[in-house]
Automatic annotation (TrEMBL):
Cited SUPFAM superfamilies: Quinoprotein alcohol dehydrogenase-like
Protein name in UniProt: Aryl sulfotransferase
Record organism: Sphingobacterium ginsenosidimutans
């Protein structure tokens, strides 16, 4: 009996001590302040001050119901700043601050309302008479870039609501990519940098692909500024390429070492016997650090046999026209040469061209599996090589009305140089796009395809059935899928 009394007394002492410790060390919320950064209708910042340093987070949800989101935990501090991102415009939200400890302390529910969307961002992205199954997109968002003024990047959800955007006051946004560290890398430039002039330009009736290519140092869609931002809109890096004499275009990515790798204009002097001195233009792959210091450059001119190049005279203003940089699983480069209707793999260290896939390449392909003036080749998470086959200049289709663009994927045996078709997903003929465009696989297995010339972004299955369609009021160079997990740095679902 004495034993049990001792246990009761000890328990009471422990409880009293715990209670004393709790109340003497009680953490309280002193102030909660809300601000809307840059007056955006899609973001809200919550600033919390505590009386004592502690961990804290915020729970928030739409007032009319829906998913409860939680910010990541802000570690021990008196002052905490929470970024609530991808909110819906003109919507009411509730939230509460939670002090994260053994016995959580929660504030009372509070509320705020986002302002209406900026008029210049309001657009009928989804048309009711077009396919619009929002479930086809899954839980991610779609990133689009606007190269006009003011230039911006916007993320749109399956309902056609803009949930995030970033804007530049002076430059258009040519294109963007997601980095391995969860940021966005964008290429900016004024439209005045485009060049369409070309000496000895063939007739518009010409079927020669060289008619459509760039000319000179700048060429089409030349970029002048690189910027890296995080998803709060904070600028991490801004590199003035113009001052460095670098013209970047078509594609820029960040590698696993957080270096910037992009396609740049490149040239050599035509020193062929019997030919007038001239500048031969093409493209190269350049690597720089995030301060803009050039680390290396791979130029095909260094190993190109110009003496025996029968196409060089007609294509000397834009011989290679690379439109993609991506990485194979071994970190070597993959690029697209649409003039050759080929994808090239390049050793990132030696610069050797390891293989060419496509017409007259190193892999034997069936005629129906050849691709023409392709864009955006890359390796998917499941290992296929996926690209967007524009289909221009294809012998399969003699008239424009019959031409068709498509996503097409291959399983490659790189050792034995064999390629087998994994799937082909043609988009409707009315959305044929001779230039630009892209195809990416979503987490749910659907495909995100961009028909740039028609301003259409489509979600199809792997047979080409369209489940969802976005209508842009501009020409999107490509649309990117932004998975839900990219927001894990800022919130938990």
């Amino acid at each position: 009996m004495k034993f049990f009394k001792a246990i009761i007394v000890l328990t009471a002492i422990v409880a009293a001590s715990a209670g004393y410790y709790y109340y003497s060390n009680q953490v309280e919320i002193e102030t909660i302040e809300l601000t809307s950064p840059n007056n955006l209708p899609l973001d809200e910042d919550i600033h919390v001050r505590l009386n004592k340093a502690a961990d804290a987070y915020v729970e928030y949800w739409k007032e009319d119901g829906g998913q409860v989101h939680q910010t990541v935990v802000s570690k021990s501090s008196l002052n905490h700043n929470f970024h609530l991102l991808t909110l819906e415009p003109n919507s009411s939200y509730k939230f509460r601050v939670v002090i994260d400890q053994v016995i959580p302390v929660k504030s009372s529910e509070q509320s705020f309302k986002t302002r209406p969307q900026s008029p210049w961002m309001v657009h009928d992205w989804i048309k009711a008479d077009h396919p619009h199954d929002e479930k086809a997109l899954g839980n991610g968002l779609i990133l689009l870039c606007y190269r006009g003024y003011p230039g911006y990047m916007a993320m749109v959800d399956g309902k056609g609501t803009i949930r995030w955007y970033w804007q530049d006051e002076k430059l258009g946004v040519r294109l963007a990519s997601l980095t391995p560290r969860g940021t966005i890398l964008a290429l900016l430039a004024p439209a005045s940098k485009d060049e369409f002039n070309k000496p000895n330009q063939p007739s518009k009736k010409s079927t020669n692909a060289s008619y459509y290519l760039r000319s000179g140092r700048i060429g089409f869609v030349g970029g002048t500024v690189l910027v890296e931002i995080d998803l709060t809109g904070k600028e991490i890096t801004r590199i003035d390429l113009d001052k460095k004499g670098i013209v970047m275009h078509h594609d820029v990515q960040m590698d696993k070492q957080n270096n910037i790798v992009g396609i740049v204009r490149d040239f050599r002097i035509d020193d062929r016997p019997g030919h007038p001195k001239d500048t031969l233009w093409g493209d190269a792959i350049m690597t720089m650090d995030t301060k803009g210091n050039v680390l290396k450059k791979w130029s095909p001119w260094k190993k190109w046999d110009i003496q025996n190049d029968k196409k060089l005279d007609s294509l000397k203003h834009d011989r290679f026209h690379f439109n993609t940089i991506s990485f194979d699983r071994d970190s070597n480069y993959l690029t697209s040469s649409p003039i050759e209707n080929q994808v090239w793999k390049i050793d990132a260290k030696s610069g050797d061209i390891l293989w060419k896939l496509g017409k007259d390449g190193d892999f034997k392909l069936n005629e129906k599996d050849l691709f023409y003036f392709q864009h955006a080749p890359h390796i998917t998470k499941t290992g296929e090589l996926l690209l967007f086959d524009n289909g221009d200049f294809s012998p399969r289709d003699s008239t424009t009305a019959n031409k068709q663009s498509r996503a097409i994927a291959f399983n490659l045996d790189q050792k034995n140089k064999t390629a087998t078709l994994a799937y082909a997903a043609p988009i409707p003929k009315k959305q044929f796009t001779a230039r630009m465009g892209s195809a990416y696989e979503l987490e749910n297995g659907n495909l995100l395809q961009t028909s740039s010339k028609t301003g259409s972004v489509l979600i199809t299955d792997k047979k080409g059935k369209v489940h969802w369609e976005l209508n842009a009021y501009f020409i999107p160079y490509r649309a990117l899928y932004v998975p839900e997990e990219i927001w894990n740095k800022y919130r938990k679902n």
